[in-house]
Write a structure and sequence with these properties.
Layout: E1 2-6, E2 11-16, H1 22-35, E3 43-48, H2 59-75, E4 82-87, H3 93-104, E5 112-116, H4 119-126, H5 130-142
Parallel strand pairs: 2-3, 3-4, 4-5
Antiparallel strand pairs: 1-2
Helix pairs in contact: 1-2
Length: 144
Amino acid sequence: MICEVDNDHRHIYTYFNNVITLQDCVDMFDTVAARIEPGAQYRQINIFDRNSKLHQMDIDAIKLAQSHMAESFNAKGLQRPRSAMVSLDELAEPVLNYWCALCDNNQAITADYRVFSDLEEACEWAGIPSEPTLDFIATSQAKR
């Protein structure tokens, strides 16, 4: 997993390129919380490639990850009006949709989450230019 916080433009990019575990999620949320400007508003794009194996993560781990995210981000006053989830793996889409449903029902989470299979559409919805996102993906794939 690779995470980048762009404080100049207030964007958060995450790229999940390995099998995802609860600890990976916790580490990513802690990394984001440590790098953001407290109280600032950010837009986020999360990309899940075919190696992420998100569908192998159990429901309890997903709920624990979400709880930790809410705690970490709320402690820093992070505001995320939109967080796009891009699935490059068909098997990840149901899990991402489940994540979105959990977020919608959790009052501690104020971000609007949506799942996309098209990167351009996700970037447009999230309000993040696609060119820096494509650069982030290319750099992330090179780090494998």
